[in-house]
Amino acid sequence: MEQRELLKRFLNYCLTEKALSINTVKSYESDLKGFLRWIEEQNILILECKKDDILHYLLELKEKGFNSSSIARNISSLKQFFRFLIIEDLIKHDPTEGLKSPKLWLRLPKALELDEVKKLLSVMLESKYYLRDITMLELMYASGLRVSELVNLKLSDINFEAGFIRVRGKGDKERVVPIAHRSMEKLKKYLVELRPKLLKRNASDYVFLNNRGQAMTRQRFWQNLKAMGKIAGVNVTPHMIRHSFATHLLEGGADLRSLQKMLGHSDISTTQIYTKVSMDRLRKEYLKHHPRAK
After folding, report:
1. Annotated catalytic residue within 56, 110, 239, 243
2. What is the Cα–Cα distance from 43 to 114, expressed in whole angstroms?
3. How many Cα atoms are found within 13 Å in the side-chain-facing hemisphere of 92?
4. 3-state DSSP assignment of residue 136
5. Is-catalytic flag, 170?
6. Where are the domains of the chain?
7. Active site residue 146
8. What does 41-110 look like in DSSP terms, one character per residue?
9. Is 56 assigned a catalytic role?
10. What is the pLDDT along the chain (294 residues), one digit of tens a residue?
């Protein structure tokens, strides 16, 4: 059954069987349309949706500037929708179970362990586009880019001599982000060896191109990353790469203000979620290795 048909059935159920107000139903409709658009972009089927997928979506809402009350409302809408799918016997497990308050999860974005990142960056794909895909992954992790910033990167945004890229983030705000030497070398190799073949007879200022010589899409990068994660045995999303960049920088001693600038956060409170992640990881390491921790 199509996802939009499921939404239509749910809204009708709310109006007729639950006798909810029109305003409440319209609120559900608005929230759920946004969620359904997002999962379609990620190639996720609604009946196979997992809790991690929902957390990923809610974290994106947070990064887009949604406040806690708006996110709480989205959680409520999602809970009602998935309960309906349970009632209709379309799913067996509710992926929204345990989601109570934005504060409970907004401070705990998922970050990969260093060895998981190494596994991902060591993946070898039997694909003629491998150099492009591994370069995108390397650049995303090395510079903490959002996936939209990565696919919209242009040749004119790269400064090889100074070792940085100019990034256009949310609200068309610009920021400058350093590029690691390893990422720089891989980027140069891609630009010389593969990009001209992808470009063919087209003209484009976009750095990363598909096989038709057009700019890569978010969806295509998501699919490629998923394939690399499957080979590496690592469950990964584009957001997790960005979270890993931030968490690993903090653990390495970076200060919060510098991280805020590199991530492009307008409010440092958004950046502070990573301090919680780092402390949780440190606590786990302590409990795991200290002889008197237990």
Report:
1. 239
2. 27
3. 0
4. helix
5. yes
6. 3-105, 114-289
7. yes
8. HTT--GGG--HHHHHHHHHHHHHTT--HHHHHHHHHHHHHHHHHHHHTTS-SS-TTTT---HHHHTT---
9. no
10. 588 889 999 999 999 988 888 888 999 999 999 999 999 888 888 898 988 888 888 888 877 778 777 888 899 999 999 999 999 999 988 998 877 666 544 545 578 999 999 999 998 878 899 999 999 999 999 889 988 899 999 999 999 988 889 998 776 788 888 888 889 999 999 999 999 999 988 889 999 999 999 999 988 998 899 999 999 999 888 888 988 998 888 888 888 888 888 888 877 767 777 776 676 666 676 677 656 555
Closest CA to 11 of 2, 187, 27, 142: 27
Pick the CATH number of 114-289 from 1.10.443.10, 3.30.450.20, 1.10.3720.10, 3.40.1550.10: 1.10.443.10
**Catalytic-role residue among 132, 146, 195, 243:** 146
Instruction: List all residues 6 or more positions away from 163 whose beta carbon is below 8 Å from its beta carbon.
Output: 178, 179, 181, 184
239 is catalytic: yes
Tokens of 65: 């500037």
Catalytic residue among 62, 186, 195, 265: 265
CATH T-level fold of 3-105: DNA polymerase; domain 1 (1.10.150)
